[in-house]
Structure formats: C-alpha cells, structure tokens
Amino acid sequence: MPADTVHPDADEQGGPGRAERLSALAQQHGALVTLLLAMVVASLSFDTFLTGDNLENMALSSAFLAVVALGMTFVIVTGGIDLSVGSLFALGGVLAAWGSQYGTAVALLLPLAVCGLIGLVNGLLIARSGLAPFIVTLAAMLGARGILLAVTDEGSRTYLVDKDSFFATLGQGSLLGIGVPVWITVALFVLGAVVLRRSRFGQYVYAVGGNEDAAALMGAPVARTKIAVYTLSGLCAGLAGALNAAWLVSGVTILGSGMELEAISAVVIGGTLLTGGFGFVSGSLVGVLLLKVIQNVINQIGSLDSAYQQVVSGAFLAVVVVAQTWLGHRRRML
C-alpha cells in the first residue's frame, strides 16, 4: 500500500477506525437517541404528554428507580448482579417511615445503615467466599423481605410520616418548581459519574469488570472493589426507599417487587454490558427515563392493560441486548 494511502477505517495516528467509533457511539448513545425519538413521537401523538404535570410526574416516578439503577450500574460494570435491591428498597421505606417519629436524621440513617450492611454482607460473601452473585443476592432479597415482614407484623402495620416534618419535605417539597427527590437524584448521578469516570476507584471498577485476573495482576484491589460496589448498591436502594417513603408519607410494604429487574433493564438499556467492563451512569439515567416514557405512553393510550408495559419493556430489553452483543462483536472484529 502506498505511503500516502490511508485505510478508510483507520486514523492517521493508528487510532480506532471510523466503523469502530460509530459502533462505540451507537453503544453509548443509542438509548439517548431512542429516548428523544420516543418523546417526539409521544408529544405529537398525545397533547397531554408535554404538559408540566405529566413531565413532573414522570420525573418524580423516575427518581426513585434511578437512584437504585445508579448503584446497580457500579455492580454490573464489575460483571456482577444484585437481585436484592427491590426488597432493600421496600425495607428502606418502612424503616424510614418508622424512624421518622424520632426525627429526620433517624429516618435517613436507619435505612442507610441496615441496607448498607446487607449490601456489605453481599459483597463479603461474593468477594471473599467466591459465591455467585446471583445466589448471594437472591438470598439477600428473601432475607430483606423477611425482615420487612417482621418489622410490619406480616405486613399488617403501616408506619406513617408526619406531613409537616422536614423528612416529608424531602419527598414532597420542590425547588424552582422541580421536586426535591429529582434534585437529589441529579446530584447523585453527577457524583456517580465523577467517581466512575474520574477516580481511581472507578478505574478499579472497570478493570475488575473487564478482566478480573488481569486487574489483580496489575495490583487492583479486586475484593475490596467488589465489596464496595455491593455496599454502594445497598445504600442506594435504602436511600431510594427512604425518599419514596417521604414522598408517600408512609412505608408501603408491597413496593419494590420486580424493581431489581427494572433497574437491571434500565442499566442495560443505557449501554452497560452485562458482561462487565463497559458502562456509564448517564446511560442508566437515560434507560430509566426511556422505560418511564414507554410506560407513560401506554397509560396515555388508555385502552391497553398495564401488563403491556412489562411486555413492551421486556421486548425492548431483548432488542437492546441483541444490539449490544452485535456491536460488541463488531468492535472486536474491527
């Protein structure tokens, strides 16, 4: 090949080719493009979609799932999975509602302490004992649900939050016309993005998910990283449950069922690979919003049963996983 000839899929400096860059962009921003298209179609189809009340309701309902998905992102980037977050979400809400009678500090710290401790135990069992994340977190899911039933007398007791308390303001208050839970969620995602992309801990998270053995050889603290991400996942689930209790001014025991699957779906739809080593917290937020837009559109139609939300979400997730697999294979082949 002549010296002045450049391959169409390679940079002059030997960087990634055009096709590889396009595959990476599609994998990273495909969910965002889909979200924008879905919002445009929904706004053209339904007059009430872009109203302030509808957007506010979607933002608030997205906030709690988004906080759970934030912690799940770190777990999945390491190549793990956490099935306990739905039960921890419900447990955190009940503990927060119970603790609110003793003040806002107890209402927030109690669910964080209990759910964070359960996440820590998950991490220790997975990292130190070599147990499968699926089995460990499944056991934690059942255990957390058992603690929830014990605290609420088999679900017969519902703890209420004083509507005039500061804790209730965290769920029902607003700032500049936007709900306080939304602001808290945005702040957490900004912090999560900085930690994952700009900190040494974030580098360890990616390294463990990319190749655990290679990460260990490079000196990365593999066990500590795994323990940290599962603890973080428990903390996020507990905090989301507490904020939800403040929003509902009660600790509802039946919440959280299937939430772990919604969180995993949002993370994967956002571009994070289930195999680990690749992902972004911003993509997880986009994934949550996309799921909520789909659910809202189905509700706007009115004639469709709510079960169709699960059908559409499941079908969409299957398409995304297939697309991710194809894009990942294509990038490896380039």
Notes on the structure:
The chain is mainly α and 334 residues long. The protein contains 13 helices and two strands. Strands 1-2 form a two-stranded antiparallel ribbon. It starts with 17 loop residues before the first helix and ends with a helix.
Shape: globular
Low-confidence stretches: 1-14
Backbone structural class: mainly alpha
Helix tally?
Answer: 13
Task: Record the strand order, biggest sheet.
Answer: 1-2
Q: What is the first-to-last residue Cα distance?
A: 19 Å
Range of helix content = over 70%
The ordered string of helix (H) and strand (E) elements is HHHHHHEEHHHHHHH
User: Beta-strand level of the residues, as a percent range?
Assistant: under 5%
The biggest beta sheet reads: 2 strands, antiparallel
Instruction: Give me the count of strands.
Output: 2
Radius of gyration, rounded? Answer: 21 Å
Mean pLDDT over the residues:
85
Topology:
Elements: H1 18-45, H2 52-77, H3 85-99, H4 104-129, H5 133-151, H6 166-172, E1 174-175, E2 178-179, H7 180-198, H8 200-210, H9 212-217, H10 222-248, H11 259-269, H12 281-301, H13 307-333
List its salient traits.
334 residues; mainly alpha; disordered N terminus
In short:
The chain is mainly alpha-helical and 334 residues long. It has helices at residues 18-45, 52-77, 85-99, 104-129, 133-151, 166-172, 180-198, 200-210, 212-217, 222-248, 259-269, 281-301, 307-333, and strands spanning 174-175, 178-179.
